[in-house]
Amino acid sequence: MLTASQLFALANGIAAASGPFRCWFCGGAAAQKCADAATVVKDSFTARDIASRGSKVCDGCMAAMQEKATVVLFNGEKRENQKIRSYSWVITRHKAEAYPKSYLPALADRLLNPPEPPFAIVISKSGQKHLIYLAPVNLDKTNPGVVLETNIVYYKPEELRKRLALCVLITAALGKKALDGPLTISQAIKMKNMHIKQVEEIVQEWNQVWDEPLSWLAAAVCPKKGDMS
Ligand SMILES: [Zn+2]
Q1: Structure pTM?
Q2: Ligand 1 centroid vs 90 CA: distance in angstroms?
Q3: Residues 121, 203 within the same domain
């Protein structure tokens, strides 16, 4: 069973060496010849509590943590000298698609139409953390799990479609920042003044669900007001 990092390596033409050892990051199988965790893992690494902490670092994690990699965007554009962690990723054994922050509509569309399994999805908000090793490898696309920064969120594409539509409605009226919490009375008044229909229903619906993981996911991929067509 390949981990998300090992799937990422495979998409880049590297078959991670397998053996009786365990990877410090992803917990996947690693070989004697793989890098030693003691030499690779920096003392400054902050996510020790969520790492698997084996004795090796597998070839997959070495590939998934590169700071000067050639990445290929979902639209085929190639970029040199890139940090893997700066991008969101949709990974299958054949392809690792990178999504820059400026292409949220494409990423949202991909979440609604996941690839054929096995696949892994990683959504980076900060661009600062290595996240691929945390991603579950999905074997079906009806209820996939994605890494959203350091949370794992499971979703059903049809439910995400509805939640995203709600986020788009609110963002178009109030800006994306409004998705960070429940809607206030003054925001409701503002929406009414914009002649938006069914404001009460929108406010009630959002205020019931804004802190659900599905809403975090929808908000993360919802385009900014300025990027809406
Ligand atoms: Zn690994």
Answers
A1: 0.94
A2: 17
A3: no
